[in-house]
Design goal:
single chain, alpha+beta, FAD/NAD(P)-binding domain, D-Amino Acid Oxidase, Chain A, domain 2, 8-stranded mixed β-sheet, 6-stranded mixed β-sheet, 8 helices, binds flavin-adenine dinucleotide, FAD
């Protein structure tokens, strides 16, 4: 059998978008995943993910997010399904936690990204769902919103298959030399892109594990009041509330409000039951009491327990394996990769075909922790 042109391992948003872009560049591509792409354990498959250009002082991701918004609109038109809701995004700058928000406003001014700056009183008048008592000010980015995440993965997969791509089920492992193995045999191709998300750390104990941490995150969906549409995406934006270590998305297509209090948790990717944690329930209720008085007494109607893989500087990984020069590692989500998916896939495809080199920030070597003010994610 001829050696295949390109193999992409991993069918989350990073792998699917890379596979699609490689196929569109004329490559013969096989995408392999352990489970059916879109499965519940993957990081990419909650109902929805926020898309916003808000990235502190980081111009690179701000521009990528602006481009990704257009790409998602194109994909949505192409697939004929709703993938993007432009409900806007609000960052709440809490007293004493404004560095990242101040830096975001400067970046937006410089790059011409549309936004509004509201005082606490103006925020409450514009978005009465929020109690703004502890807020210094807010930034509202109107050309932001949410991507329907599970549907986005499935749409990308469908477009990939329409472009001639093949999808196979299989568990790719690595040997002691971090060489790829499938069904007991070396996995070989001109190009192999490994986009296995949080699983990449255990697959690459020498190359990826030392620069990453895998963190479980449990998020809950809360019901909206009977007969009241004010918490739906038509009337409420996504939000980021760094001072409260929270973010969230309004109710969409009946999902309930996703008010996520981030409590970093341990997770066993393959063996944990994906159930609600008691602590998250208590902390989410207390957050809702503080920020959303109109949701007090509402019930948890759904939940998601999945994970992020964090790099020290929260930059993604797009780099060649140091010993295997046909293996390109692509991921390092750091809690913000989903929205960039179409641009990320396009970039990885170009690096994989050696049309250009990777960006310095995506290299495996030389990672260091950034201060919250420097960080693209404010972490
Ligand atoms: C709670 C939460 C909220 C988030 N919010 C946002 C947000 O608002 N906006 C945003 O942009 N991002 C957000 N993110 C981050 C975003 O979801 C991730 O960065 C992104 O989904 C990562 O995609 P991925 O393709 O790298 O990984 P995954 O989606 O996990 O995909 C990896 C795939 O690889 C497969 N795989 C793994 N190992 C193997 C193997 N050995 N062989 C074969 N296949 C394998 C898996 O089965 C899986 O399908 C959030 C993440 C979390 C957890």
């Amino acid at each position: 059998m001829a050696r295949p042109g390109a193999v992409v391992v991993g069918g989350g948003i990073a792998g699917v978008m890379t596979a699609l872009e490689l196929a569109r560049r004329g490559e013969s591509v096989t995408l392999i995943d352990r489970w059916e792409p879109g499965h519940s354990r993957a990081s990419s498959t909650d109902y929805n993910r926020v898309i916003r250009a808000i990235h502190g002082r980081d111009e690179f991701y701000t521009l990528w997010a602006r481009e990704a918004r257009l790409r998602w609109m194109e994909l949505q038109a192409e697939i004929g399904q709703r993938l993007y809701y432009e409900c806007g995004a609000l960052i709440l700058a809490t007293q004493g936690h404004c560095h990242w928000e101040d830096a975001t406003a400067e970046t937006f001014d410089k790059l011409g990204v549309p936004y509004y700056r509201f005082s606490a009183a103006e925020t409450a008048a514009r978005f009465p769902q929020f109690d703004t008592t502890s807020i210094a000010y807010s930034l509202y980015e109107p050309e932001a919103g949410m991507i329907m995440a599970h549907r986005g993965v499935r749409a990308g997969l469908e477009l990939f298959q329409r472009a001639g791509g093949r999808v196979e089920r299989g568990h790719v492992t690595t040997d002691a030399d971090e060489r790829l193995v499938l069904n007991g045999k070396p996995l070989d191709a001109d190009l192999i892109v490994v986009a296995t998300g949080p699983w990449m750390a255990d697959m690459y104990p020498r190359t990826v594990k030392p620069i990453t941490a895998v963190v479980g995150v449990n998020v809950l969906y809360t019901s909206t009041p009977d007969g009241d549409a004010s918490f739906d995406q038509e009337n409420m934006p996504c939000w980021i509330d760094h001072g409260e270590k929270s973010f969230g998305l309004p109710s969409t297509e009946g999902s309930g409000v996703k008010a996520a209090v981030v409590i970093p948790d341990k997770i066993d990717l393959d063996n944990d039951e994906r159930l609600i944690r008691r602590e998250t329930l208590a902390r989410t209720r207390s957050y809702i009491r503080k920020r959303f008085p109109g949701l007090v007494g509402q019930k948890v109607v759904d939940s998601k327990f999945n994970q992020i893989i964090l790099t020290p500087d929260t930059h993604f990984i797009v780099d060649w394996h140091p010993k295997h020069d046909n293996v390109l590692l692509a991921g390092g989500c750091s809690g913000h990769l989903y929205k960039h998916g179409p641009v990320f896939g396009d970039f990885v495809a170009g690096v994989g075909r050696r049309e250009y080199g990777t960006a310095d920030r995506f290299k495996i070597a030389g990672r260091r922790k950034l201060s919250p003010a420097e960080s693209p994610s404010g972490r």
